[in-house]
Fold this sequence. Notes:
InterPro entries: TPR-like_helical_dom_sf, TPR_rpt. By secondary structure, the chain is mainly alpha-helical. It has a domain at about 35-190: Tetratricopeptide repeat domain (Serine Threonine Protein Phosphatase 5, Tetratricopeptide repeat, Alpha Horseshoe), CATH 1.25.40.10. Helix content is about 75%, strand content about 0%. It has a two-stranded antiparallel ribbon with strand order 1-2. Helix 13 packs parallel to helix 15 (about 300-310). The radius of gyration is 33 Å and the shape is elongated. The N and C termini lie far apart (about 135 Å).
Amino acid sequence: MDTSGRGDWKRREGLGSALLQIGVVAVVLAAAVAWFVHRGQVRQEVDAHLRTARAAALKGNPGDLAMAQQQLETLFTLSPDSRDARALSADIQAELWLDHHVPGADQKAREQLERAEAMGSRSGERYGARALLLVGEGKTEEARKLLEELQAQGANSPKLTLAQARLLQRQGRLSEARIAFARAAEGAWRDPRYSAAYGEALLDEGLFPQAVEAFSRATTANPDHLLSRVTSALAQLYSGRNPDSVKATLDELRSNSKPLTPVLQARLAVAQAELALTKSAPDEALAQTDAALKAWPEEHYALFTRARALAAKHAPEARQAFEAAVAKRPTAPLLALDGARLLQAQGDGEGALALLDTYEKTFREVKVQTTDGKSVPALDRDDRYWLARGGVMELAGRQDDALAAYDKALAARGVGLARAQYAKGALLLARKDFEGARTLLSQVAPDTGAGNMPEAYAALGELLFAQGDFAAGCQQHYFALVRARAQGTPAELIATRANDIKKRLETSGQPAMAKAWLTEAGPLFQQQ
Length: 528
């Protein structure tokens, strides 16, 4: 057989095949390189969107949260299975639902959270959002178990601490809740939402200066944090601060072109209502609270301010209004304790006592831990409650019950100890128990004049007048006026009090001392 040329044929076949294979490999490699480059670009875009979303969410306003969600929606078109982005989306929607009550945000939060959990996300947003949603839904036992399991696994984050704080608050364990809120705010100091949550918790307790301070920290993190600004203004108005100091803030917020969520609309209207009350315009205040409740019917501050406006009008509906506010947020001491005080001032002692009974029922089973590890009833440590109850009893003429309540306030040895000493001392003075009264009053009104309670010095002055020691009594009354003036009491009111004391001295047969008294006290109220 002629085999000539066969080797050339094989050579040609091998060369073509090799070239073909090289071409295929080149195409595959090019495709692989293009795929990897594209994948890297997508990853970079995903990371960029995630960073932008986190930065926007950190500002804490509803518009910022919406912008963050838009970034995440774009991210999902590039990478639908980004589990940590799903968790962040769940966290944002939970925030919009829990703090701003945006309709439908709760369902979106659950959907995103379920996807993040199905993908195995282990981010802080996933666990924090789940815990916060459980608390918000009222599933306190499930929330407690989840937080305990996470704590046993060593999980720790400001988001989980915030969920723990809100759970404790719902359970009425307020002192523990305050500590947890403070820890969360400290751990997430760059996020205004945490300090704002702490501020609202303090406001619910009627701790106005501390609440304003917490809101101040929130606005330090973001000077334009709307919820902190408007709620800080409300806290200042509740505390009786000069309304001119917050009016400009409220005017600016009202003219803000940014869309407001239901809660922000309601909170702003409540602040406007409180501003109207400072001008003795309860009808205007009622109109504003109606607007607030229309924006968000669950706003407990709107219910509370509405009750305050009705009390200012001496309307019989005030009692029912306060009861509605307390029912909406039973673990907020401000609503019950201040409500009882206002009802008593209106002359509705029965209504005041009913509010306090509701308060006692709410906290009766709550236990707190002492520094030595013992568990005691929370009411035993609640000096504010016993002071409020004592005041109601005293004005109702039930002096023995009032003394018993004041004794419980003293036994609590809380931050209101000085107030409890004064309250019992003043009541003993009214019962002409001068020795017992002086023992208590002297503790808060020392002879050096270093005390901070004008009314205690005034009570001690009255005691000394009753005992015929007019010189020492004038000294105590002088301390009372000095302290009152330093605390911002108008000069006109100081003058009225000074003249009343002058008349008391004259009717007691002390004309020379009356003249000397006015000479000494005059500079306190004379216009500079």
